[in-house]
Amino acid sequence: MSKGIVLEARHLTRKFKMANNRMVAAVDHVDLKMYEGKTLGIVGESGCGKSTLMRMLVQLDKPTEGQIIYRGKDITNDKGKNLRENHRRIQMVFQDPMASFNPRMKVAEIVSEPLLNFKLIKKKEKEKEVKRYLEMVDLPEEFMNKYPRNMSGGQRQRVGIARALTLEPEVILCDEATCSLDVSVQDRIIKLLVKLQREKGITIAFICHDVALVQSMAHELAIMYLGNIVERIPGDKVHKEARHPYTKSLIGSIFDVSINRSIAIDPIESEFTRALDLPHGCNFQNRCPHCKKICTVEKPQLTKIDYQHFVACHLYE
User: Fold this and answer.
1) What's the CA angle centered on 44, arms 263 and 262, to 5 degrees?
2) Chain centroid to CA 123: how far?
3) What are phi and psi of 207, to 5 degrees?
4) Is 19 exposed, middle or buried, given 0-12, 13-18 or 19+ CB atoms closer than 10 A?
5) Quick one: DSSP state of residue 48?
6) How many helices (H) and strands (E) does the chain have?
């Protein structure tokens, strides 16, 4: 990864107060780096803290601890004009586009609103600019006059991507942007993002619970479990070189038409531990087939085991 760091999380933590004043960490001292023109995939089960992490990076939520570094500058506590400018440079594509659209607005208004808000165009230029951005995401210009409710899920997601592109951001964060779409539409959206990244040099973070899907486009994968990053590995090496038992379990759960039916599928035993009931030591201990005494006492830290490969597991320390 020779290009520079664009966005970085340093010890990023988000705690929430629960009943009886108990605190639960949805994200626990996460360190991540996003590189110029590269894609970072963040993978994990529902409830592991992926979306909370994304909301902090796009500054829709405040971290309890840690820093958000953009182009070498700490933007964690930015407000007012600086925060507005950050939102221009770091955009987000939401999991449910309908929830992020005003149902009374047509596509032309949805796509042009950021441009008009930042005074980047005049009203008379609106139609021309909307056509240009719809063309980028392979939608015909007649979609300008449609309401989101009259479109398919894939079409709505393309409108969401078009809106994110209008401010020419350096970073786009995709929060499970394909999870509600069928497989063929997912593939088209992934190819669209790859194409736009190649053309514009955009840095992308893509969160997903499907390791096979995100691996197809990510230069690096960060595997997340109960608020912690348990493994970071180049995307093209995950199938052959993954080390953490949780990562291996995610890979082993992938079904495909060419699956070898003679190989047994090893399920992850035990239930997903609630964040309120985290044990001492490793968070994955009650589901890990390799758990040993030290795992119940001491929490493993991310350790470098190879170039660009880090694992938080006592098996590899």
Assistant:
1) 5
2) 34
3) -100, 145
4) exposed
5) S
6) 10, 12
User: Tokens 């803290």 — which residue?
Assistant: 49
Q: What is the pLDDT of residues 261-316, one digit of tens each?
A: 565 555 566 566 666 677 889 999 988 889 999 999 999 999 999 889 999 999 98
The residue ranges of DSSP E strands in the chain, in sequence order, are: 5-17, 23-35, 39-43, 65-70, 73-74, 90-93, 171-175, 203-208, 220-225, 228-234, 303-306, 309-311
How many structural domains is the chain composed of? 1
The predicted model gives 86-105 an average pLDDT of 90
Q: Using CB atoms within 10 A of its CB, is residue 193 exposed (0-12), middle (13-18) or buried (19+)?
A: buried
Distances 287 to 68, 266, 291 between C-alpha atoms, Å:
32, 12, 8
What Rg do the C-alpha atoms of the chain give, in angstroms?
A: 21
DSSP code of 221? E
- Give residue 109's identity as a one-letter amino acid code: E
Going by the DSSP 8-state scheme, the letter that residue 80 receives in this structure is H
User: Residue 63 is part of which domain span?
Assistant: 5-316
Tokens of 214: 């995100």
Q: What is the CATH number of the domain that holds 275?
A: 3.40.50.300
